[in-house]
Amino acid sequence: MSVGENIPRVDAWEKVAGRAKYTDDLVDRNALIGKIRHSTIANGIVKKFDLSEAEKIKGVVKIITCFDVPDICFPTAGHPWSTDPAHQDPTDRKLLNTRVRFYGDDIAAVIAVDEVAASRASRAIRVEYEEYPVVLSPEESMKEGVPLLHEGFPNNILKHTTLEDGNFEEAIKEEGLIKIEGVYETPIVQHCHIETAVSWAYMESGRIVVVSSTQIPHIIRRIVGQALGIPWGDVRIIKPYIGGGFGNKQDALYEPLNAYLTKIVGGRPVKLELSREEVFFGTRVRHSEKIYLESWVRPNGRLVARSYKAYSNQGAYGSHGHGIAAKGTNVFRQLYRDEKARKVDIYTVYTNTAVAGAMRGYGTPQAVFAVESHMEDIARKLNLDPLDIRFLNVMPVGFTDPFTRNVNYFDSFRQCVDKAKAYIKWDEKREQYKNQSGPLRRGVGMSLFWYNTAVWPISIEVSSCRMVLNQDGSIQVALAETEIGQGADTVFTQMAAETLGIPWRKVHIISTQDTDLTPFGTGAYGSRQTYVGGAAVSKVALLLKEKILRAAAVYTRMPMENLDIVDGGIVLKTHDNRFLTSLEELAIDTLYHTEHAQHITAESTAQVKTNAYSFGCAFAEVEVDIPLGKIKLINLVNCHDCGRLINPKIAQGQVHGGMSMAIGFGMYEQFIYDPKTGKLLNGNLLDYKLPTILDHPHLEAEFVENWEPTNPYGTKALGEPPTVPGAAAIRNAVLHATGVGINRIPLTPHALFAEFKAAGLI
Amino acid sequence: MSVGENIPRVDAWEKVAGRAKYTDDLVDRNALIGKIRHSTIANGIVKKFDLSEAEKIKGVVKIITCFDVPDICFPTAGHPWSTDPAHQDPTDRKLLNTRVRFYGDDIAAVIAVDEVAASRASRAIRVEYEEYPVVLSPEESMKEGVPLLHEGFPNNILKHTTLEDGNFEEAIKEEGLIKIEGVYETPIVQHCHIETAVSWAYMESGRIVVVSSTQIPHIIRRIVGQALGIPWGDVRIIKPYIGGGFGNKQDALYEPLNAYLTKIVGGRPVKLELSREEVFFGTRVRHSEKIYLESWVRPNGRLVARSYKAYSNQGAYGSHGHGIAAKGTNVFRQLYRDEKARKVDIYTVYTNTAVAGAMRGYGTPQAVFAVESHMEDIARKLNLDPLDIRFLNVMPVGFTDPFTRNVNYFDSFRQCVDKAKAYIKWDEKREQYKNQSGPLRRGVGMSLFWYNTAVWPISIEVSSCRMVLNQDGSIQVALAETEIGQGADTVFTQMAAETLGIPWRKVHIISTQDTDLTPFGTGAYGSRQTYVGGAAVSKVALLLKEKILRAAAVYTRMPMENLDIVDGGIVLKTHDNRFLTSLEELAIDTLYHTEHAQHITAESTAQVKTNAYSFGCAFAEVEVDIPLGKIKLINLVNCHDCGRLINPKIAQGQVHGGMSMAIGFGMYEQFIYDPKTGKLLNGNLLDYKLPTILDHPHLEAEFVENWEPTNPYGTKALGEPPTVPGAAAIRNAVLHATGVGINRIPLTPHALFAEFKAAGLI
User: Fold this and answer.
1) pLDDT digit string (tens) for A15-62?
2) pLDDT tens digits for A159-187?
3) Is A164 a member of any domain?
4) A343 and which of A61, A168, B379, B610 could share a cystine (Cβ 3.0–4.6 Å)?
5) Which of A20, A82, A231 sits opposite B592 (nearest CB)?
6) Residue A189: which of A359, A67, A46 has the closest Cα?
7) Nearest chain A Cα to B466, which residue?
8) Residue A24 DSSP class
9) Which residues of B touch A233 (CB under 8 A)?
10) A599 close to B (CB below 8 A)
11) A278 within some domain
12) CA-nearest residue of chain B to A221?
């Protein structure tokens, strides 16, 4: 038994001792330095460059501009490739762009012998632009007459979809229905991983190697091939330890450009490391969404029909595009079951803001904020208990989704709510905080959430794994699913140990992915590592075990059917697991056998054609200082059903991190743009208010362990879910405390002050 | 067809552009520097150290001595492990040694922050010894009363074996036999690879990683585990490009010590790079041998019985030990067939010289020098043609060796001799140089040679390979057989391309071996790369092809039996190879298929239980300046039957390099020791006379291509054979020119002067 234990993280020693190697630790001593020249307008066209001053700077090796790069538009989103064009991501970006689409767009690049020369030269490039007006919001960008950001996308709409279940117009004709409306807005926020985007590239034997801090090495290989117009096999991506990604590194950020930079200097190594400021304005962000909800409800709270209309701000380039808005609608459609009908109308729209891509939660934090704020508003309007109305409408046990064929096997919602409710003393506090007055008021609020594990059936889900038996009975495990700080390497270690019947310390996980060597897999996203990667580990461990037992049968002369591996030893399972020989002895005999020497390894691909619901809730308690417009978060508890916990401590850590992100999303973080120039005004860690440990109460992570039947280890998504419900729970707690429901996050003092004033509290 | 073509070396670009990464190019920026303190006596015991001065030097991190290291004796020879103790190598060495056995033995080590501090501290260590008399030759070392170098080895004999085929004493009773005797001596020489021994080591997650310039990464892993007494799986060896090895790096040189050094500083990286001088006195050398031959011959030249007695100088430690002398006796026993009997009596003896290990030829250059010089002496004594007497006695076509079950399938000797003879105009020159006088005289000489491919059945022969199909129809090939400059990566590329039916440019060979990732194989030695590695490439390519064709059958709906891969396309072999689809299209469909996604890879182990004779000859023409004692080598031609040539140009390169080594062995190189102190006097590239391009005539490499039936590509050994016959051919040419047969190489002016004087020529 290794699964379920709190074994220490397998990378703990390296990381604590500072020995773990990250991309920048490995840079070739002789690497040249690349620097990107960013546009200083947000919308327009580069007319021409004057490079004369820049070229004079000592140490400059090469300067390229948007007029030099290949005329290839490529996709950047980190999705598995699809041979079906309808499932491919937008291809709307070149390595450097003449058509400038946001303030900070990439228009030229300098390669120099050091950081100083590269930076100086980048600054010394003179640019002439033709400027267009700046548009920062979808609704504005969709207006007639606004300049188009990308050809072929009228009204700057990247994609628009509608959907109707049942007949909405018929449904709302039912007598006695109450119509409740709300508009909910979420901000542009960023991942704020510790390690900025960094890569370095070189050529070997005519092929391009990029060492990069990425979540998705095999996908990056494909995108670099596409962006440069070269065979994918001519690209090699190596991913060392990375200092966080949270979805930003589930995108090809600068690997294609870096690959191109090394190519144009004949394969000399070139490093491309972004500053924090460049990461802010120039990488990816969470889509800001404006969501219009309209609900038709019976007085007892039963939802009869609802409509969901959303505008998702794509920013300047397609990246993950419409997928985020689409996943949001699944929250709307699946979390609660309308009795008769519901309809969806969603737009993903190009604007001149930062490019929106994948970020932990992938559209669900926005949608859950809207849906769960709205649910609270309905409960309040109908004077119903917020839990009662939720359980009246929530997805029932036994529900099967016709598209994903997901089944809601367990009463997870009720079990999670019961746990979290008890922890926060919900009933007691709902009562206690009923009639408050004065400047300081307390409240409790909650939110459910819905999440789907991994990406099937939208995209394929495959993961390959390779295992090797060593002469000491230890094994190496390699797969392309990536450790990005979340603990994936540790849980894979535990899974392999459990299935093989060996101590976890005998499992050596290969943390570095290298597309030349690592079996194919698509990487870290969609909370898929334990679920899909786990399926690969299980499949290959069983294959390896079979090979080991076959060799053991030869060695021990016992029938293979009677043998098993327990605690690293070959045992007779028919005779109380009597010990026969050690794996070490067997491995050495097999590898060096003069008659039948064999290197015991196993490799295979697991394709997962299931998905799994991963539900839960958050409960928050706040104290609001009304005159100051300040919220003090007193208590926050998340309760998750993510199936069986592989490593409870690491699971807790995941939840803590997600809760912290939810606090930032709900209370602190937002991109602020200059409306005239489109320049990001707070794109650094001083002005962008990331919450710190001082802004956090104790974060309580609780679990309900319902063994997920679609996974060999009984596990399902936990990576992203923790970040989903917090913002709505806090907003609803503020509503409970003050009677004011604020529909736009973050709940900053500015926002609260305005709202409280409008509500007459100040 | 890729095999047989002169494709450019796949590593040519990297090496020509200076981009290829060698061990030292990859050293961690923060690596500490290790320096070994060597003994300044050749025989004795370390009594004590005074480290006080050394420890005071700024930058010193740690000093360890022979009193600190684990009390573990380990083997260093790069052989596959054997579970049979009788087949294991001598275990007679510790990481640092209290019992000093040669001048320069490792007695302490310093770890410091830089080269200067490490060197200064190493010099500042004061040592007190107890000294014993120095013994430099086997016959001296075997004498009674000489101090024993290793416990348990009386008379310093590491191993002594005798062998008799037939009844020698009976055989020599035949009437009319002529007895001919000779004593032949070969020097201690060294490999002189360009890159010295270098490694660096660090720890990750409790395991030790050693990056090393080695021929045998998987074997080094095992030896490091043994030397430190830790599980073998806790060791990881990475082998980048290497600048030559020639057998010196078929030994664990300093990887075990380097692993220990990083361990005692808590896993901080430590680099251990040897100077050229340290390589000379402290790594490995070719065994010097003294061989006594006694032949009983009929007047027509037919060998009736022979005896072979040899003393092989092992130097201070066991390393490859008796295997070298033993392989030499195979030359004696197999090259010529005595009609009645032969006997062998060989000793491998410890002395206080440098440790003798593997060097290109592995005992055969010594034995061929003796046997072929002796054959020439017999011909001369009996007044027979040197070719006639050889063909009268040489191993006949159809001969089968009962031990190896090798078969001499072809008339290779005759074919090779015919080619070489024609090139050098043998008959014409034998005539022309018959009656010379004066100071300048010319002569021609020749030598046959015998060589066995790889090491079966002495040791196991296994090689594993893994191949991966990429989305562009290219493949990666990984195996543990190592590119050491010989061109292995290129021929593996050609083999894989041929078996798979794809262009060679679509094959990406993984040049770096990493024991965590690379399929098991034992590395570069015994001229086994193409023969054993090729078997693995063929086996795995066929497995991969089968998987590809199975997928192609699904994709094209054609029966698998009708399909083939030609030039990277799936074709209908039943219909003139009509093109159906590209491998690229098939690979993408298969990898991203929503129903049956599959990462097509193949991996397996090939065990080779055959061996193959790899024969040939060398012919030399010299001009001897008698008064000056100088030989001018005018012509040298080698002709080899190494089976089918995979890459004729690379094969030529191998032969040229080997011929150059033979010239050095025959004419220039030798270790010269101070007889009193045992100190090496010429251990540097200035005083050790390595021949240069100026000392070489045109080197003519010719081939006879008899398709070897035991190998899937029809190939057999070529790595070592070229270095084997040259010395005897030169010696015999000098004999032809001057009438003086010199039995001790190298044929330096000193030696020639003395011999010519004794012969009355001067």
Assistant:
1) 999 999 999 999 999 999 999 999 999 999 999 999 999 999 999 999
2) 999 999 999 999 999 999 999 999 999 99
3) yes
4) A168
5) A82
6) A359
7) A517
8) G
9) 470-476, 506, 508
10) yes
11) no
12) B471
Chain B contacts of A584, Cβ < 8 Å?
Answer: 231
Measured in residues, chain A has a length of 762
Say whether residue B237 is in contact with chain A using an 8 A CB cutoff: no
* Digit-coded pLDDT (tens) for B733-757: 999 999 999 999 999 999 999 999 9
Of the candidates A231, A246, A273, which is a domain's last residue?
A: A273
pLDDT band at B642 (very low <50, low <70, confident <90, very high): very high
pLDDT of the residue at B1: 64
> For residue A75, what are the domain limits?
13-132+197-273
Chain B interface disruption, residue of A14, A591, A608, most B CBs within 10 A: A591
The shortest CB-CB distance from A470 to any of B233, B457, B599 is to: B233
Does one domain contain both B517 and B592? yes
Mean residue pLDDT across chain B: 97
- What's the pLDDT band for A192 if we cut at 50, 70, 90? very high
Cβ separation of B506 and A233 shorter than 8 Å?
yes
Distance CA A336, CA B59 (A): 68
> What is the pLDDT, as a whole number, of residue A1?
64
Amino acid of residue A432 = Q
Instruction: Give B463: exposed, middle or buried? Use CB within 10 Å, 0-12, 13-18, 19+.
Output: buried
B101 & B227 share domain: yes
Tell if the CB–CB gap between A80 and B589 is shorter than 8 Å: no
Residue A4 domain-assigned (yes or no):
no
> A542 and A557: one domain?
yes
A473 shares contact with chain B (CB less than 8 Å): yes
SS (H, E, C) A358-383: CCCCCCHHHHHHHHHHHHHHHHHHCC
* List of residues 6+ apart from A758 with CB closer than 8 A: none
User: Do B493 and B432 belong together in one domain?
Assistant: no
Domain containing B760 — which CATH number? 3.30.365.10
A233–B601 CB contact, under 8 Å = no
- Do A509 and A12 meet the contact criterion of CB atoms below 8 Å apart? no
With beta carbons under 8 A apart, name residues in chain A contacting B474: 231, 233-234
A–B interface: beta-carbon pairs under 8 A:
155
Instruction: Give pLDDT, residue B21.
Output: 94
Q: For residue A60, give how far its alpha carbon lies from the nearest alpha carbon of chain B (Å).
A: 21
pLDDT of B596 over the 70 cut:
yes
Q: Which of B480, B517, B515, B479 is nearest to B496 (CA)?
A: B479
**Same domain (yes/no): B121, B185:** no
**Letter string b/e over residues B633-643, b meaning 16 or more CB atoms within 10 A of that residue's CB:** bbbbbbbbbbb
- Does A581 contact B at CB distance below 8 Å? no
Residue A557 pLDDT: 97
Residue ending a domain, choose from A394, A412, A435: A394
pLDDT band, residue B179 (cuts 50/70/90): very high
* Range list of H helices, A318-435: 323-335, 364-381, 386-393, 412-424, 426-432
Residues of chain B in contact with residue A520, where contact means CB-CB under 8 angstroms, are 468, 591, 599
Average per-residue pLDDT for chain A: 97
Residues B186 and B306 in one domain: yes
Contact A233 B508 (CB under 8 A): yes
Same domain (yes/no): B288, B260: no
Considering only CA atoms, which of B281, B270, B223, B277 is closest in space to residue B250? B223
Cβ atoms of B249 and B233 closer than 8 Å? no
**Cα nearest neighbour of B12 on chain A:** A205
Q: pLDDT tens digits, residue range B473-482? A: 999 999 999 9
Closest approach of A362 to chain B, Cα-based (Å):
22
How many independent structural domains does chain A possess?
A: 4
Sign of CA dihedral A508, A513, A519, A524: positive
Smallest Cβ–Cβ distance between A517 and the set B517, B598, B603 belongs to B517
Mark whether B638 and B600 lie in a shared domain: no
Q: What tens digit of pLDDT does each residue of B681-710 get?
A: 999 999 999 999 999 999 999 999 999 999
